[in-house]
Give the backbone structure.
Amino acid sequence: MVDSHVTPGYSLRIHQPKGNLFMPQVITRMKSLPPQAQLVAAKMGMLGFEEGSWRYEMNTPLASPLPSESLQVRNIKDRAPKMRVGHYVEILKPYTLNRANMLMPPVIVTDDGFLLDGNTRTEAARRLGWQTFPALVLNDRWNGAPQALQDQMMKLATMFNTTHGKDLAPGEIERLVLLLAREDTSAANLARQLQVSRTTVKNVLYSKDARDRAAELGIDVNSEKITRSHLSNLGIQAEKLTDPVFAAILNLVLKTGLNANEERALITALGPLRTEQDKLERIAAERASLDGVAKGYATKPSTAARMRQALGNVNNHSAGDLVETNPVNGKMHAEVIETAIGRLEDTLRLQQKLNSERG
């Protein structure tokens, strides 16, 4: 028999199972939630799902095991991995008769039963023979929801996947950033909502800009030689690179396999050059030094080319960044720098002499 007295903020929908006699069946107020659910609700509020947009149900029917009935943020092969499900089974087993004392956070579902977060917990409960699991249920439905609301739900699912359980793979984060950037391109907002670093989000957005520009220039960047880091390097410096210079750098990478660090050093070296022609000549010179690699008869760049790349990386930093602060290594660090300066001075004299002889 259902008690006719309902505490404000609660509503009773079904009979309370044995072992949970003093826990309200449905809670709609943050302060009344159990501690493990309060943390989940607080995070939901960060994305606009505040008190009044959800309800907590102690005994929500388990979501369907079909992938089509849940929001799959991860690659399908990572959905509820068996080993983690088995681990959760052992954690949940003692609470079969008393969910009220369970510390595992609730899952998140929509009003039409679409699972947004909690695949592994749901499968562990199913393996134990449970029919229900505590859940924070959104008052909105997934099916038929406007695209903006579905994107908001996607952000919610992504945030929880990046703050507990197995971390999202870089490719999964990239896919989600690009998907959600349709609504908001602010790196700070996306980073906060997805609980990943701002640098990660910026690099994804920069790489997208570079990929779009390459497409406009008719350059196919779908090659193993072109990584997201290559594209991010170009995207960061996009405003400083004319189309011919941008294209020349990409073609250099495609022809020679220049890695991302080497590409970054080259872009830095182009910075002080004033004209587009100067920059194109600098890229052509780099191409000439790597010509053996491009034509397939050399296995690595020349020593001179690798030195320029290394020095380009050094030039990316201020002097203070290059100082060794560990007292154990300080003396050795100074000796290495002093030796390198002497070697570079000798190299500079020889290079200037050779350049003079060539006219």
Observations:
- The first strand starts at residue 26 and ends at 27.
